[in-house]
Write a structure and sequence with these properties.
The complex is a heterodimer of chains A (about 90) and B (about 200). Chain A is built from 1 helix and 8 strands. Chain A has about 90 residues and is mostly beta strands. The chains are: A mainly beta (about 90), B mainly beta (about 200).
Chain lengths: ~90, ~200
């Protein structure tokens, strides 16, 4: 059995994939986990990329916050695990 | 298997026996959409829940006392790697479902950690699927789905749910973890059914 090293990246690594869908950098947005209610910057999420898609999980409860799947023609985005994403409108 | 040198086996197979769009690997890549659950066998159980709500349950001792089969199968991952001739030991779903009365057409596999994947029930029967608990003669590593995983090698490997804990039988083909965000509901590698609509 291999050592139990983390198999995830931090949420900042999602910046590129999310920029393709959103015009703003969402990794700085404040998100609320729909599972445990933890609130924090999206960049604090645990990002699993060695998978058929990208999965961001809550650093508090490991619940799924976001899933992104890129197919040859479309990008699927599932945000069900986030109660909200709060994006600052201040300059 | 033909008696040929392993070196030529690989090249011959890579040219003639891989599904479209796949490449051959001799590694066993670990793909995971979340943290690896560490389930002790004494805490493990496997359940089959029918469409009427009847629950069939096996603990580790009962499960491993069932007749097991040695299985050698090729694996095809939707991320395009294929690994040929992998050796497993497990219990056939034919054995586990033998006493389950159902008229359901579909099954949802559920895993420790919350993963799900959907399959037609017919694809779990007739010697096509197992709950595997040994790989290469050793207990199955947690990173590869141990203590036990579903093995449905004729479909893309995301259907072979790691850390499987149960099947829920249903009359409707609901979508699992990857199928609900763009992956194909069936996933036949020979028809290259990677994404919805393929």
């Amino acid at each position: 059995m291999t050592a139990d090293v983390p198999t995830y990246l931090d949420g900042n690594a999602a910046a590129g994939a999310l920029r393709e869908v959103f015009a703003v950098d969402l990794t700085a947005a404040i998100g609320r986990c729909n599972g445990c209610g933890r609130t924090g910057a999206f960049a604090e999420a645990r990002l699993y990329v060695d998978a058929p898609g990208m999965v961001a999980r809550c650093s508090g409860c490991d619940g799924v916050l976001l899933r992104v799947v890129n197919t040859p023609t479309d990008t699927y985005l599932d945000l069900r695990g986030l109660t909200y994403l709060r994006v600052s409108s201040a300059e | 298997m033909d008696i040929v040198s392993p070196g030529f086996t690989g090249r011959r197979r890579s040219g003639t026996e891989l599904p479209p769009g796949q490449y051959l690997t001799h590694e066993f890549p670990v793909l995971s959409a979340g943290p690896t659950p560490h389930i002790l066998p004494e805490h493990w159980e496997f359940t089959v829940t029918t469409e009427t709500g009847e629950v069939h349950r096996w603990d580790w001792a009962t499960f491993t006392s069932l007749p097991a089969e040695e299985i050698t199968k090729d694996l095809h991952c939707v991320t395009r790697w294929s690994k040929l001739g992998t050796d497993w030991k497990g219990v056939s779903l034919d054995t586990l479902l033998a006493d389950v009365e159902t008229s359901a057409d579909f099954a949802m596999a559920h895993s420790y950690g919350g993963y799900t994947t959907n399959l037609p029930l017919d694809d779990l029967l007739d010697g096509q699927a197992w709950i595997a608990y040994e790989y290469d003669g050793e207990p199955l590593d947690p990173e590869h789905g141990g203590p036990a995983r579903l093995l449905v090698p004729h479909l893309y490997l995301w259907k072979s749910a790691k850390w499987v804990r149960g099947l829920v039988l249903s009359d409707t083909d609901d979508l699992g973890f990857w199928e609900s965000v763009g992956y194909h509901e069936y996933g036949d590698p020979w028809k290259e059914q990677r994404y919805a609509g393929d």
